[in-house]
């Protein structure tokens, strides 16, 4: 397993038009569309209860402060009691950039880092170069799966 950096990130999105407005350049690149972020965490032995407690507080803080976060779940790996996954759906790339600057997230990452031995992030979808660069600058191992095809259903109708 890879060593966990102190800072990690999570996020992904589901509804079009939700969250912050995007520039026309972002619209053309798809960065104004919802996307998914998966963050995989692995607790050190005996530390899962601390990871869960810190994650619970972070979840509540993100819900209260990030309207561009459309879905935010923390799930346990069914095959590893020390493994967890954050699934996040972001309205757009600006919502991820906001998330990465959120003081509550920064605090969470600093507090949870010592209790983890792995923290990685996977991005799925159209995400702006600036948001990907910002995420990678945290030192978190990040892999971006760019969309080749598919659609996002407009749920506002």
Quaternary structure: single chain
CATH architecture field: 2-Layer Sandwich
| Strand adjacency order, main sheet | 2-3-1-4-5
The stretches of 5 or more residues where confidence is low (pLDDT under 50) are: 1-27
CATH class: Alpha Beta
Helix content: 25-40%
| CATH fold label | Alpha-Beta Plaits
N-C termini distance = 45 Å
Major sheet details: 5 strands, mixed
Q: Treating each run of at least 4 consecutive H or I residues as one helix, how many helices?
A: 5
Average predicted local confidence, pLDDT:
84
Could you walk me through the main structural features you see in this protein, from its secondary elements to its overall organization?
There is one protein chain. With 157 residues, the chain is of the alpha+beta class. It has one domain: Alpha-Beta Plaits, CATH 3.30.70. Helix content is 32%, strand content 24%. The protein has helices spanning 24-29, 48-65, 93-101, 103-112, 129-136, and strands spanning 35-43, 69-76, 83-90, 116-124, 142-145. A hairpin with a 6-residue loop joins strand 2 and strand 3. The protein is globular and about 45 Å long. The termini are far apart. The model is unreliable at 1-27 (pLDDT under 50).
């Amino acid at each position: 397993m890879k060593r966990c950096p102190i800072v990690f990130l999570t996020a992904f999105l589901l509804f079009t038009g939700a969250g912050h407005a995007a520039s026309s350049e972002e619209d053309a690149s798809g960065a104004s569309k919802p996307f998914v972020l998966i963050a995989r965490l692995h607790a050190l032995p005996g530390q899962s209860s601390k990871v869960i407690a810190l994650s619970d507080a972070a979840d509540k803080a993100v819900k209260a402060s990030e309207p561009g976060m459309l879905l935010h779940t923390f799930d346990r790996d069914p095959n590893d009691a020390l493994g967890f996954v954050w699934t996040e759906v972001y309205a757009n790339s600006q919502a991820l950039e906001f998330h990465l600057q959120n003081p509550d997230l920064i605090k969470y990452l600093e507090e949870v880092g010592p209790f983890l031995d792995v923290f990685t992030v996977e991005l799925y979808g159209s995400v702006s170069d600036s948001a990907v660069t910002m995420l990678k600058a945290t030192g978190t191992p990040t892999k971006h799966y760019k969309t080749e095809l598919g659609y996002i259903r407009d749920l506002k109708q």
